[in-house]
Recover the amino acids of this structure.
């Protein structure tokens, strides 16, 4: 069975600037992966590269066994990648419901299911995208990505800047996603506790490379190793 | 006094509607593609010439010539977008300006060669050649038609942009092109369609407005500043903003020239400066 995602010797960045150096890893179908690391080590660039929003200098990116390296972002979305960006990037000129429907593709995820997962969005369905709180925007970004009915979901720091009570709500929604169905998920997260609790496998990045790729439990059991990899105080 | 005010208002509205129909597509394409298309007026002139040729040379009815102008110019716009404009997305403004100015001058030379340097007028249907009486005052029926056409195009665009899936995608791409791509929107195809739509509407505006803004080879150059003002004051990427801007500019310009003709276009530019100082992104712009 082909991997959900496979990166081989990927070098990528913005224009001539290379951020990711010779990066390779696989994610099985239905696999969950957390990525942690200090600021500026290339975590966001990695997700943007998988989505096709950076310049790929070298390497191969496979999705379900198909090389997608040459595809534009919209073709990658059609191929099955859903993206929740770091800044949420809600469309302000669209209503909440339009934001959800703009990328809608047929599949298991429907508007009703999104409203079931995030009832708040149904209450705000006629509000414009720029009239939402940070937590609501994050729910909307989740819902918008899920309605593209992806096979692989990329989450870039989904809890950044949110109040603890909202983080808790969203994390529970994410755990539902993790435990239901066969969706492959990669989550970049600064909150190490949440990242390690979310996925059985964690990757730590350093200077555009993979510094650790293994069981999350190994880092939970060895805080000193976690600190050495991520830096004390760098993560929460 | 009331008669003068109503006359100014009527002719100001007719002028405003022509400015709106021609400019609205420019605002959408500039908002969506960040492409400063200074040749936009040439597409309007092309639409004017299509209507002139269709009604005068081919003897087609005016009501057939108008959709023909839209379709012909939209197709031409799509070809230009695919062949040339596409290569300039993301280029610096100087390259875009030089390209579109070159295209404008080439169009002027082409129109002069094909149609001569003189002003051209389409054949107006008899039903629109007379007068209509509004509030006891006679007004040219054709200009009343221009006003109705402007409002109808605003309504059609509002439905298209506000109520269709394509419109939803255009708004999303104006807001954030990368994110629109990331949810699966084919922004390249969307750009082609939007450019074709914008130039097609300009062509329609050139045809409808030939009675207000005369069709000459230099049309695109002569009225370029007015079209840019409507877009800048209305706001890039908006359909209501340019409507409001065109109303302000059209009525103020006609009033200024009617009441104090020696000031020329002083008022129009005064109003523009005041509005842009107060609202740099225009009335409804997503960005300046």
């Amino acid at each position: 069975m082909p991997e959900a995602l496979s990166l081989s010797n990927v070098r990528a960045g913005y224009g001539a600037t290379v951020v990711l150096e010779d990066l390779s890893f696989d994610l099985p179908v239905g696999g969950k992966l957390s990525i942690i690391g200090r600021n500026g080590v290339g975590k966001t660039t990695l997700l943007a590269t998988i989505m096709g929003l950076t310049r790929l200098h070298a390497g191969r990116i496979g999705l379900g066994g198909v090389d997608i390296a040459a595809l534009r972002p919209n073709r990658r979305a059609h191929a099955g990648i859903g993206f929740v960006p770091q800044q949420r990037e809600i469309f302000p000129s669209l209503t909440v419901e339009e934001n959800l429907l703009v990328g809608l593709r047929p599949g298991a995820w429907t508007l009703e299911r999104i409203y079931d997962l995030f009832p708040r969005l149904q209450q705000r369905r006629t509000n414009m995208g720029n009239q939402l709180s940070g937590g609501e925007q994050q729910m909307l970004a989740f819902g918008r990505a899920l309605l593209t009915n992806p096979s692989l979901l990329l989450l870039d720091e989904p809890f950044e800047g949110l109040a603890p009570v909202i983080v808790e709500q969203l994390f529970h929604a994410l755990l539902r996603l993790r435990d239901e169905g066969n969706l492959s998920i990669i989550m970049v997260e600064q909150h190490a506790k949440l990242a390690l609790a979310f996925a059985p496998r964690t990757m730590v990045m350093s200077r555009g490379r993979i510094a650790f790729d293994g069981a999350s439990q190994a880092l939970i059991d060895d805080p000193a190793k976690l600190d050495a990899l991520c830096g004390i105080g760098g993560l929460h | 006094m009331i008669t003068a005010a109503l006359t100014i208002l009527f002719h100001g509205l007719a002028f405003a509607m022509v400015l709106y129909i021609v400019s609205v597509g420019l605002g959408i394409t500039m908002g969506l593609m960040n492409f400063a298309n200074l040749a936009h007026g040439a597409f309007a002139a092309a639409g004017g010439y299509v209507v002139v040729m269709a009604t005068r040379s081919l003897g087609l009815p005016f009501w057939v010539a108008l959709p023909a102008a839209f379709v012909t110019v939209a197709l031409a716009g799509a070809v230009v977008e695919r062949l040339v404009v596409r290569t300039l997305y993301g280029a610096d403004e100087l390259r875009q300006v030089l390209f579109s100015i070159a295209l404008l001058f080439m169009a002027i030379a082409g129109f002069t060669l094909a149609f001569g340097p003189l002003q051209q007028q389409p054949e107006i249907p008899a039903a629109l050649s007379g007068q209509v009486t509004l509030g006891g005052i006679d007004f040219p029926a054709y200009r009343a038609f221009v006003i109705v056409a402007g409002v109808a195009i605003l309504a059609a665009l509002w439905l298209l942009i506000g109520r269709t899936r394509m419109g939803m995608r255009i708004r999303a791409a104006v807001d954030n092109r990368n994110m629109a791509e990331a949810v699966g929107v084919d922004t390249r195809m969307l750009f082609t369609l939007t450019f074709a739509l914008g130039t097609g509407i300009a062509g329609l505006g050139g045809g409808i407005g030939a009675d207000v803004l005369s069709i000459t080879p230099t049309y695109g150059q002569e009225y370029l500043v007015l079209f840019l003002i409507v877009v800048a004051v209305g706001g890039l990427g908006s359909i209501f903003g340019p409507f409001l801007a065109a109303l302000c500019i059209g009525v103020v310009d006609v009033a200024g020239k009617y009441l104090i003709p020696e000031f020329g276009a002083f008022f129009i530019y005064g109003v523009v400066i005041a509005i842009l100082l107060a609202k740099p992104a225009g009335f409804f712009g997503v960005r300046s």
In short: The longest strand of chain A covers residues 17-27. Residues 81-150 of chain A form one domain.
